[in-house]
Amino acid sequence: MLTRRSFLTTAGILALGNLLSSCASSNVDLRVLLLQGSIPPQLLKAFRQNLSSQPSLDFKPQGQLKDLFSLLETWQGKDENKKGLWQEIPKIPVINPPPPSLSDFVTLGDIWLADAIKKDLIEPLNLTQVENWDKLPSRWQTLVKRNKQGQLQDNGLIWGAPYRWGTTLIAYRSDKLDWQPQDWSDLWDQRLSDRISMVDQYREVIGLTLKYLGHSYNTENLAQVPQLKTELLALNEQVKYYSSDHYLQPLLVGDVDVSVGWSNEIIPLITKNRNIKAVVPTSGTSLWSDIWVKPKVKEGQNELSETAKQWLNFCWQPQAAKIISLFADAASPMIDRIDKKEVSPEIMNNPLLFIDETIFEQCEFLEPLSTEVQEQYINLWKEIRNS
Asked: Matching InterPro entries, A to Z (predicted)?
């Protein structure tokens, strides 16, 4: 049985290079721009083996979700204000090479979905011919059903295909603490005064505070939670660092005892450092999902190719769900649809991937907010950070 420890990173990179070698051809059957690390090489190899023909595949990784969103804007000519260095120094055009060719699918985080829809960067998917769509758990179907303003709508169009998901976790130094954090309430413990680092994201910080107070991450009227500002100010006193890029470094060097951040970044850290542990807060946490979206194309060219349908369908098959959950530092949305006897103990016995059902029921995606509600959150966040 494959385990994470048996996966050699170097071999994986070489395998990915071999799998993508067919993309030199100009006649590519499927182009995919994916978030680096979100799809393991084993999955691409298995996909090839499941195909009866040998189509030309072009899978290219990108480092960050914001880069992928920018590419969607570039393809639609909606990044006029983003001048590349080559435009200011015409003699050196190689500094900023042209963007990749328009892809069939691009990875997008669910939190970016509303903006992509509103800006007309992507188009809805017709998944009636993708067999496994009907098997996808309702929570993930609901996540991608939106109106044309990007708001959730039960009978809305389908704007993406979720393929992996994760959570916001509490990571801690087990060698520094003589107790174990279990829930959001522990962040207010005086023993952690000036000993916390967390992601610099107002939806996450305000959301976990709302959860601590017994409310939803997606509360629309913050004025109805009178204790919110007081508790946020108290939490702010506990936090030593806010950073969305470097919140884990202080934990690694022992400058803080606790970090709040995303599971796909914390899980690999745990495998390398035995002193770092993590928990899913017992009262529930925020969920995130990586999604395949289809970039906007000209009218009449929006039908999915046969190979594109096969790729989406394959990502939701049991074989793919097991590979993603084992090697992508996240879980497949189909993982609880698989016979538990067929799932690796490394997944089943990992409470950060196979979350306790009682806790999971209390977890929430960060839903898109109206402009008015979003302003409430942003203004409160500015007030807290400037205090």
From this structure: Sperm_putr-bd (IPR001188)
Distances (CA, A) of 352 to 66, 263, 345: 25, 8, 13
| Cα–Cα distance for residue pair 386/384, rounded to 1 Å | 6
Where is average pLDDT lowest: 72-86, 152-166, 181-195, 260-274?
72-86
Which residue carries 């959150």 as its tokens?
A: 377
Q: Which two tokens stand for residue 264?
A: 């796909």
270 residue type, one letter: I
Tell me if 62 sits within 8 A of 34, measured CB to CB.
yes
Q: Give the SS3 label for residue 130.
A: coil
Nearest to 285 by CA among 144, 171, 158: 171
Tally Cβ neighbours within 10 Å of residue 246.
11
Give the 3-state secondary structure percentages of the chain, helix then strand then coil, rounded to 5: 40, 15, 40
Q: What is the pLDDT of residue 299?
A: 65
Please give the full DSSP string across 67-91, using - where no structure is assigned.
Answer: HHHHHHHHHTT--TT---HHHHSTT
Q: Left if phi > 0, otherwise alpha if psi is -120 to 50, otherwise beta: which for 254?
A: left
Distance CA 33, CA 102 (A): 9
Arithmetic mean of pLDDT, 131-160:
96
Query: 308: which DSSP letter?
Result: H
Contacts with 272 (C-beta within 8 Å, 6 or more apart), sequence order: none
Please state, in angstroms and rounded to a whole number, the distance separating the CA atoms of residues 9 and 31: 24
Alpha-carbon distances of 165 from 103, 258, 264, 296, 321, rounded to whole Å: 22, 23, 9, 24, 11
Which 8-state DSSP code applies to residue 320? H
Query: What is the chain's length?
Result: 387
Look at residue 53 in the predicted model and tell me its pLDDT: 85
Residue 302 has pLDDT above 50, yes or no: yes
